[in-house]
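Fill in residues.
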């Protein structure tokens, strides 16, 4: 996965050479429009459909927060809801949510297909964001700089085993002779 690493302290050199100044201006011109777009376009509570490489997905992202991090720039924090997971043992499809995923504004701009509607920010977003922020501040967490669809594909490779474990627990707790409709 592509992530922007939380930078470590670097030595600072007073003044800029001509070439460095031109490079810095080019970087500002490249990233400024994305930051402006993110700040104006993405607002907490917006539900977006995103592009995927494979078939369309029922999963959506809900914007929870937009902030600027000095080392990275504009970051759009989202919840991913309705993630379809196919269980490895019996092929059942279950749906899951991830309460917090941080993306660069550029990754979001490359990913978004359409604004669908307004939605409530999931109630667990705040606690998940706070946990990420604490870990980011200590250098233990990063920000995704790859398209949302690619992150979804990686999630779908990792989570089905966990989903199967949850289904197995539910099946074990439900008697076989229980009626389908009480």
């Amino acid at each position: 996965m592509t992530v922007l690493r939380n930078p470590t302290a670097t030595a600072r050199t007073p003044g800029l050479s001509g070439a460095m100044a031109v490079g810095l201006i080019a970087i500002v011109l490249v990233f400024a429009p994305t930051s402006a777009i993110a700040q104006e376009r993405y607002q907490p509570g917006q539900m977006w459909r995103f592009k995927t490489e494979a078939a369309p997905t029922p999963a959506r992202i809900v914007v929870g927060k937009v902030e600027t991090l000095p080392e990275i720039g504009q970051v759009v924090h989202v919840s991913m809801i309705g993630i379809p997971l196919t269980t490895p043992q019996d092929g059942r499809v279950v749906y899951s949510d991830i309460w917090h995923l941080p993306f660069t504004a550029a990754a979001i701009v490359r990913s978004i297909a359409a604004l669908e509607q307004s939605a409530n920010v999931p109630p667990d977003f705040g606690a998940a964001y706070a946990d990420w922020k604490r870990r980011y501040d200590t250098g233990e967490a990063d920000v995704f700089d790859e398209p949302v669809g690619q992150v979804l594909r990686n999630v779908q490779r990792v989570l089905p085993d966990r989903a199967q474990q949850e289904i197995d627990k539910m099946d074990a707790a439900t008697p076989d002779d229980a009626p389908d409709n009480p």
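Residues 99 and 123 are 9 Å apart (CA to CA).
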